């Protein structure tokens, strides 16, 4: 009996040892505890994540284009207004010879010019990391492929070129500033509403015409021409009969004759241009012109810098609203 107890006791020890051995083995197979795990709140960037953060793909008239997500050196000739509205300074600014967009000079005085045809050598020298072109590519010295070989290149559609509010949203997306674009448009809408209310008191139903005089020629703004589109269609200013007669402006802006201009029936007329221009001198010497109601009533206003009035963009529109309202205070 004593031997039996000893054997039974020995068997129990062996079973306990086996149990402990299995328990240790299972413990080693368990998942690591929280202290051993990486912090799940911290994102681990894979190479693909880094690539997604540095580049975005956008659709354009030229097909899908991969552009840098946060470009630092942007060339957007003649679209500098939009960049400024988004808090960006272009790497170079549009120019025709010595002429620049004067209304932007407060922000761009220290930016080098680039000729409006975008010479390839000049584009190469400034080393942009994003190029934005208008849809009429024939205006440029190089082809799309030429510019795309220098830097990622996006071509604005006809709608984006013709409607600055569409354009600012697109460029905002291109350069990672969609929120800034949305905020800018909201602020602009508030400005328009305030100006519209003020003009109801200042003008009521009185009509206003705008004309650019340059090189002895008279360019009367049609309802959809440059700043007139905003003044008539957003601010709700009454359109004179002669302007209505002109209809919608075509891409080419044709001058109007002095004889036809003498039929002006506007209550107010804004003339843009240098007072020394031969066209304004001809008006001063025209008896027919001087007998029109707008002249007789002393309701002709002269503005020498036409640049914001003949451009479309957030900055141009805001400047024009301020100048327009101030004329009638």
From TrEMBL:
Extent of Basic and acidic residues compositional bias: 28-43
Ranges in coiled-coil conformation: 178-205
Gene3D superfamilies listed in its UniProt record: Nitrogenase molybdenum iron protein domain
Gene Ontology cellular component annotations, sorted alphabetically: outer membrane-bounded periplasmic space; plasma membrane
Keyword Ligase annotated: no
Membrane topology label: Lipid-anchor
Keyword Coiled coil in annotation: yes
Transmembrane segments: none
Keywords recorded for this protein, A-Z: Coiled coil, Signal, Transport
All residue ranges annotated as the Fe/B12 periplasmic-binding domain in the record: 71-329
SUPFAM superfamilies in UniProt: Helical backbone' metal receptor
Chain spans, region Disordered: 28-63
Protein family per UniProt: Belongs to the bacterial solute-binding protein 8 family.
Name used for this protein in its record: Iron-hydroxamate ABC transporter substrate-binding protein
Organism: Ornithinibacillus sp. 4-3
